[in-house]
Amino acid sequence: MQSSIKETIERPPDWKRGFGERLSAILGRDGVIFADDELLAYDCDALTGYRIKPLFVVLPRTSGEVSRVMKMCYDEDVPFVPRGAGTGLSGGALPTDEGIVISLARMNSIIEVDIPNERVVVEPGVTNLSVTNAVSSYGYYYAPDPSSQIVCTIGGNVAENSGGVHCLKYGVTANHVLGLEVVLPDGEIIETGGKTIDHPGYDIMGLVVGSEGLLGIVTRITLRIIKKPETVKTLFASFDRIEDAGASVSGITARGVIPAGMEIMDNLCIRAVEEAVHAGYPVEAGSILLVELDGPQAEVDAQMPVVEEVLRGQSALEIRIARDARERDLFWKGRKNAFPAMGRVSSDYYVQDGVIPRSRLAEVLGRIGDLSKEYGLSVGNVFHAGDGNLHPLVLYNSKIEGEQEKALELAGKILGVCVDAGGSITGEHGVGNDKKRFLSLMFDENDLETMNLMRCAFDRKGLSNPGKVFPTPRTCVEQGMKPYAEHPLQKSGLGEMY
Amino acid sequence: MPESSIHNELTSIVGGENAVQDPHLLESSSVDGVIPRIVLFPDSIEQISEIMKAASRAGASVVPRGSGTKMGIGNKPISADIVLSTRKLDRVIAHESSDLVATTECGIALSDLQSYLGGKNQFLPVDPPHVRGGATVGGILATNDSGPLRFRYGTSRELLIGMKVVRADGSIFKGGSKVVKNVAGYDMPKLFVGSLGTLGIITEATFRLYPVPESSKTYIACFESVGKAHDTVRSLINSNLVLNAMEHMNPGLAGYITERLGLGSDFNRYTLAVRIMNVSRAVSDQVKTVSDISQKNSGKGLIIEARNEEAFWHEVREFPWRSSDGAFAVLKAGVLISDVPRVFLLLDQLSDKLGIRARASARAGNGIVIISIDGDGESVINSVRGLRELSESAGGSLVVREASPDIKPALDVWGGMGSSLGLMKRIKSAFDPGNILNPGRLF
């Protein structure tokens, strides 16, 4: 591996000031943040353990401005980090100290709402929930619903390929993005996909979604919206043992029912949540499973008894079906406030994001329990059980010497357990800065090298969000920079030969 | 490199009986008239890797092939030295039924995979054409081919969660994972979906699956005008019905299919076919609603199920390949849902003006129109140009999926690839610096 860019660039002493002025010339004085105290607001995302103050923060208003800024960075070898609302949990928007942050916060217009064609076109700074708000009066909504949907941006969702509590049935961001305008790292503006589907050529859009800002900056996004279901029914069941809740989940899908969402919480989380929001969960239960069914009335009516039968078969203590929308919201309120509620139980906690096959839930939860005992640290379990996306919360006290390190080590071991069970190190939070050292648990050297080959076709200088995702810094080898080559026969005009 | 030396090398990799140079097989494996020098039948990913290493060293071009049902897609190749058949890689590697996930080798026929999954009452919800002709999972992925069910489930792109690929240099890599939710690393599998074998040989794929629905029914209704049919489409889209497929057919196609199946002779009009698959009660309730909505627009309809229904959808998938011997083209237009009627009206005009025969079925809720055109060569060529102009000026695309050999050279197969073409070419040269994989078929 070769050294990173910042060590190889030597700049003249007044370069920084001049660079700031050149940025101001593009964006106006109010489009660049220079002051140290203001820059501190951008030194981390929602993973606050890592902090780096950037050189400057820029706030472009148009894709043309984004392009000019990136071209200037590219010409002067300045790394840049794109940023939406900064709600990411993997340090994906962590700045680099020799580079700038490009905030898309001012590009927050909904450009077009096209109900007959079921499309919404937005700028990247538009929040997730405001897409749904823009179309809900027509009976439509935007399906991916990460917990931070009130504040997180569509641009950030695209970068992270965000999921949510309903992606078991409705898919993740990649299944709902139909078109992108992307500014490539060298400033070139391209379009991929659009309001229509099946464009010929490679699926550039599919690559960019989930690329964590390493392939460029998305400046316009075309989204698919879908109709709200006719009926929604939500229930929760309580169990003595969390393993029974886990077995219920694969039991339900094995019976041919795909719920809109299935969520599990263990006793530690139930107690924290009950105290915080009074969702009506039974505090003595070992765990609860929330199940939401949606669709045509007749379908939901037919599936509900199947679900109840599975739950009883797994020794559910109590099954409670929400009687109305108010009670349904209450059930969900508990789940959605699980992370903040943990703050009442523990001064510090670390959220993990592993994924496992549904059928291995019971076994993996057992292993997490063993690890928790071994490390002497509590682990709360609250997770998207339907798609096997675990969010173990490792509780610790940062004031106790060495406990944070111990917590991180435990969290890392949990990822090992997930991968051993045939799963993934991240389901929706992304690799970012935080999990890059674990990427090699899933991918061997050639897999990573192939990803890098693709990245080099986008960014041969490696300036777009550098230092993220890959376990070790990677540069672009000669092969990746070759211009498109004609086939030898194409060039020579020779006939058959091999 | 002398010819005999690479021939010996390839033969020693797969064994003599799997390296075929029989002239009949070579000719039947030709791509747009380009006849290969050898057809190889490797039976493992390791053999494919060795073949690619040898081909890379020799600069020999490689055409990946499953059952060969879609070899007409793309430009005529610049060269096609080796046809690499994946048909011997036909094992289902794992089917975790309680996870609704399966991993399979890519040379397996989709029909064989479905039979296997059907044992656990599950299926991969894609219904492209040529399934009875042996269409393989790898070929379906490489062309991102799909059928009417995409309205509910999307194409294989949306169902694919992991993949194993042999690159041009013979190295093997995997992307994605075996769980339904995963954002670790780039989503590399998507790059290979629809890449027409130009970036690597797809050897393994992992998919999310669905339970086989308990019941299925299809409602077919014909309308006085394209406008009335489209109004019905709009009402159906704007309802909260959960439909599995919704096809809008032109009179030429609807009349042809319904007559062929003996469903009556009233259907020589714009016709909708709506398929609902669900628990029985939800099917009958929703079919009733569909028929009510359709009757408001004076649609005259009937319900089909079981064998009739299967036969009907088979025809909807296969109709473009039932053309006559003359000049023909099979097209796929991608337009806005609201622009589908414009495509139909243009087809009517072209039929009147140029005397072509046009059959078309729109995935009405997706904005995809599958069109087959027959006629004299020049009229077909002019029709394709007219349709492309309409599609592209409306922000969409038109791809020539197949065309008779007499007119194919005169057609631009792909149309514009837009502002990302330069980036696509950089990706191609990064993955295949010697341009040996399907050279020229994409660009």
Notes on the protein architecture:
The complex is a heterodimer of chains A (498) and B (443). With 498 residues, chain A is an alpha+beta fold. Helices cover 36% and strands 18% of the residues of chain A. Chain A is built from 19 helices and 18 strands. Chain A has helices at 5-8, 15-27, 36-39, 63-75, 128-135, 154-160, 167-170, 204-208, 242-254, 267-277, 297-313, 325-336, 338-345, 361-375, 403-420, 439-442, 445-458, 478-481, 488-492; strands at 32-33, 57-58, 80-83, 100-103, 110-114, 119-122, 140-141, 177-183, 189-193, 217-224, 226-227, 231-239, 261-266, 287-295, 318-321, 348-351, 379-384, 389-396. Chain A has a seven-stranded antiparallel sheet, with helices on both faces. In chain A, strand 5 and strand 6 form a beta hairpin. In chain B, helix 1 (3-14) packs antiparallel against helix 3. The chains are: A alpha+beta (498), B alpha+beta (443). Chains A and B meet through strand 9, helix 8, helix 9, helix 11 and helix 17 of A and strand 9, helix 8, strand 11, helix 11 and helix 15 of B.
Structure summarized in a few sentences:
The complex is a heterodimer of chains A (498) and B (443). Chain A has 498 residues and is of the alpha+beta class. In chain A, 36% of the residues lie in helices and 18% in strands.
